[in-house]
Amino acid sequence: MTVFLVRHGLPLKEPDKTPAEWSLDPAGFDAIWALRESGRLPARAAWFSSPEPKATETAQLLTDGQVGIVDELAEQRRETTDHITDFAATVRRAFAAPEEPAHQGWEPLADCRDRVVTAARRIVEVHDGEDVVLIGHGTAWTLVAAALTGEDPDLDRWASLAMPDVITI
């Protein structure tokens, strides 16, 4: 069994919406189609997605098959439309102090970890022996990758993830 954690494609950042409401930017479709044709994803697998539009739209461009929507696979909740000058530093702060919101309106990373890792483990257990593709988000997948491998979260890998990209476990 292999787990493929797919980060969504390039979002269209809309300043009057929270990140959870963003859709894909059509300028990034070619990168998603290139991933589809790359051979990096299995021909046969169980597919699941975060409910966020940028994730479900990525899934629609990556496969013609069925994709289950799992609410718990949503990214760390960031209920703000504030522009964050140094997003990477804010995310790193979330990993450094996971019990505290790293920014006003952000879900504590520990809460995100509990939700996303529990959902991912449940999916993997139900599909034991079968490849699994999860479409979602960089921060969430950094937490899931750490939990499934028993390693510390790899923030350098998080920082280098493209949109889209794949972490294979």
What can you tell me about this protein's structure?
- Helix content is 38%, strand content 12%.
- α4 packs across α5 (138-149).
- The mean pLDDT is 96.
- β2 (46-49), α2 (53-62) and β3 form a beta-alpha-beta unit.
- The protein has helices at residues 29-37, 53-62, 87-96, 109-126, 138-149, 155-160, and strands at 3-7, 46-49, 68-69, 132-136, 165-168.
- With 169 residues, the chain is of the alpha/beta class.
- The chain has six helices and five strands.
- A five-stranded mixed sheet has the order 3-2-4-1-5.
- It is globular and about 40 Å long.
- It starts with a strand and ends with a strand.
- It has one domain (3-168): 3-Layer(aba) Sandwich (Rossmann fold), CATH 3.40.50.
Jot down its keywords:
Rossmann fold; 5-stranded mixed β-sheet; globular; Broad specificity phosphatase PhoE; His_PPase_superfam; His_Pase_superF_clade-1; alpha/beta; 169 residues; 5 strands
